[in-house]
């Protein structure tokens, strides 16, 4: 199984994206998409040498739901700040978030989530991979914001990349 | 095409256009580069989302077909938006450090250093055998 499908999640994603692009489910589409799903993971194997195991179960779906909800909320918050807050009242701050995640993939997910959600953009990772540099548009309490990021996103990613 | 579908499409289009406008406004009026980055990465995500849902509703009501391309567009947007924001932020950090630009208007001030003895990955190559490096083993 591992030999034929070295990366089942990538294969599934390729097939789904292919069918979405074709915008119809036909036998030809499934065969061609299935061929790509079998061949591409094999050829790209050298690009992901020690990828972590991901669990696409309950925790993953819960994480997606929370992030989608936060994105909607984030849009209204940022729109409010842009429209009604004067620049000199804006409490923009740099945050240094210590990270306990141990794989590049998990840290990338965390950084991407931070960039998409309320008032924060991740700017950089430290050279030893233990800190994220995050710019926040408006925070009252920096320590509380860092704790919120760790509790809301990092703790959940820990369970997905277990 | 039913009137209800028309109304839904119009509301979604206006919502999307409104958020796109606010995002662009943020780009113009926020004081410095890092604050300006918040406009396009967030306020426009929902704007584009609303426009894409409007497109789905339109094709369903007008031609009676469900389209899936909108789902793909939002997937690609969610992957690319944080990465382009990250690239802009890294270039910005670099230009601040080398003195190519100075930012008197910045609210947050200069970026802090990470804890420990390290530097940010923009200034120091990711160290081997740490989570920042993909060249392990």
Automatic annotation (TrEMBL), chain A:
<dbReference type="GO" id="GO:0008324">
    <property type="term" value="F:monoatomic cation transmembrane transporter activity"/>
</dbReference>
<keyword id="KW-1133">Transmembrane helix</keyword>
<keyword id="KW-0812">Transmembrane</keyword>
<dbReference type="GO" id="GO:0005886">
    <property type="term" value="C:plasma membrane"/>
</dbReference>
<protein>
    <submittedName>
        <fullName>Multicomponent K+:H+ antiporter subunit E</fullName>
    </submittedName>
</protein>
<feature type="transmembrane region" description="Helical">
    <location>
        <begin position="60"/>
        <end position="83"/>
    </location>
</feature>
<dbReference type="Pfam" id="PF01899">
    <property type="entry name" value="MNHE"/>
</dbReference>
<keyword id="KW-1003">Cell membrane</keyword>
<comment type="similarity">
    <text>Belongs to the CPA3 antiporters (TC 2.A.63) subunit E family.</text>
</comment>
<dbReference type="InterPro" id="IPR002758">
    <property type="entry name" value="Cation_antiport_E"/>
</dbReference>
<keyword id="KW-0472">Membrane</keyword>
<feature type="transmembrane region" description="Helical">
    <location>
        <begin position="12"/>
        <end position="40"/>
    </location>
</feature>
Automatic annotation (TrEMBL), chain B:
<feature type="region of interest" description="Disordered">
    <location>
        <begin position="102"/>
        <end position="137"/>
    </location>
</feature>
<dbReference type="Pfam" id="PF03334">
    <property type="entry name" value="PhaG_MnhG_YufB"/>
</dbReference>
<protein>
    <submittedName>
        <fullName>Multicomponent K+:H+ antiporter subunit G</fullName>
    </submittedName>
</protein>
<feature type="transmembrane region" description="Helical">
    <location>
        <begin position="71"/>
        <end position="89"/>
    </location>
</feature>
<keyword id="KW-0812">Transmembrane</keyword>
<feature type="transmembrane region" description="Helical">
    <location>
        <begin position="40"/>
        <end position="59"/>
    </location>
</feature>
<dbReference type="InterPro" id="IPR005133">
    <property type="entry name" value="PhaG_MnhG_YufB"/>
</dbReference>
<keyword id="KW-1133">Transmembrane helix</keyword>
<keyword id="KW-0472">Membrane</keyword>
<feature type="transmembrane region" description="Helical">
    <location>
        <begin position="6"/>
        <end position="28"/>
    </location>
</feature>
